Amino acid sequence: MVEVGDDAPDFTAPMADGDVNTLTLSDRLDDAPLVLAFFPAAFTSTCTTEMCTFRDRMANFEDVGATVFGISVDTPFALNEFREQNDLNFPLLSDTNREIVREYGVSMDFEKYGVEEVAKRAVFVVDGSGEVTYAWVSDDPGAEPDYEEVADAAETARA
């Protein structure tokens, strides 16, 4: 698993932002701090709550110059619908090939539902040099991050 002090693994992924574009992490370091919020699946209760909480607290991240991205293994088309239905004001990244969740060490199976290799609920903050300055990973898909702690980490990463 990626830890604080590690270089953030670089990746290129489809980005659902109302359209479908492509994002390469290393190309966005000028927009740092970057908040990478991994979530298991769009349209599920806790994931919807989490992404809507990021939406509702976006001013906290904008105030410190942070850029937020949600990341799941859903298709970019499903993620665009999820964004629209929940009026999300930040892009979502599609990791259908599971490369990002593997690189960050946040892959898990939902054995109860027979679903393999989705993202654990996790948040990483990446600074402008590409270093991970904050990492939170939960083995409990029902847990949510401490949003104030994430905002504080983003503010610290800006310095």
From TrEMBL:
Tell me the lineage of the source organism.
Archaea, Methanobacteriati, Methanobacteriota, Stenosarchaea group, Halobacteria
Any idea what this protein is called? Redoxin domain-containing protein
- In this chain, the stretch annotated as Disordered covers 139-159
Question: Carries keyword Oxidoreductase?
Answer: yes
Transmembrane ranges?
A: none
Acidic residues compositional bias, start-end: 141-152
Organism in which the protein naturally occurs: Halopelagius fulvigenes
Write down the InterPro entries for this protein, in alphabetical order: AhpC/TSA, Peroxiredoxin_AhpC-typ, Thioredoxin-like_sf, Thioredoxin_domain, Tpx_Peroxidase_subfamily
Please name the catalytic residues of this protein.
C47 (cysteine sulfenic acid (-soh) intermediate)
Q: Where is the Thioredoxin domain?
A: 2-159
- Alphabetical keyword list: Oxidoreductase, Redox-active center
Q: Does the keyword Oxidoreductase apply?
A: yes
GO MF terms held by the record = oxidoreductase activity
Please, which domain of life does this record's source organism belong to?
Answer: Archaea
